[in-house]
Structure formats: structure tokens, C-alpha cells
Amino acid sequence: MRSSSLHRQQGITLVGLIFVLGLVGMVGVLALQIVPTAIEFMSIKKAIFAAKAGGNTPAEIKASFDRQATTGYIDSVSSKDLVLVKDGDTFEVSVAYQKKIPLVGPATLLLDYAATTAKGGVAKTPAL
Question: What Pfam families does this protein map onto (predicted)?
């Protein structure tokens, strides 16, 4: 004998599953492109703090940064990109750069990175 009450099935359809998997895949590919730039930025932050501690003059600080960049596999910035501002007896080191990640066709993702050794994270402008 058949039951007179029909139970409605619940769940995701095949088309819905494909759509969700496509979205998860796109987010995953984007994350795989962003994570290496974020890791490199963390290496750059460590390198500018080590460079500040490793030198007292602009030339020593830049040479120290170059050594850190070589061992830390830093390719986005060099010692030429560092901004050094005298703050009393020491120098504050700052760096800012952009990273472009191509997406699809003409679309790109632009990431702005900035780091400084100044207290409070606010870099002063260099005196000319």
C-alpha cells in the first residue's frame, strides 16, 4: 500500500552543485595568487626592521636590506625603493609598492602594500 503523504526531497541540484564548485574554484585560484604576495610582504616588513637594526647610516641600512632581500627571496622591492627619514639619532625605514595580479582578459587585481618602522605605523615624509 502506498502512503498518501509524499515527502519532498531536499538538496542541491546538479546545476547548483556545478555553480557552487565553480565559485569555490575561482576563489581558490584567486587565493593561490594573493597568498604569495602577502607572504612576500611579510618578508619585506621583517627585512626593513632587520635593516634598521643592522645599520646606522643610509648606506648601511640599504646594504643590510639587500642582504635580507637576497636571503628572503624578495623580488618586488630593492634598496632603491626604501624611503629613509632621519628621526633623531636613527633612521625610519619605509617602503610602499603595488602588485598587479592578472585575472581574466583586461581585468587585474591591484594590491597596495606599505610598511614602515616608524612608531604607530605612520611614516614621516622625507626632508629634501
Answer: DUF4845
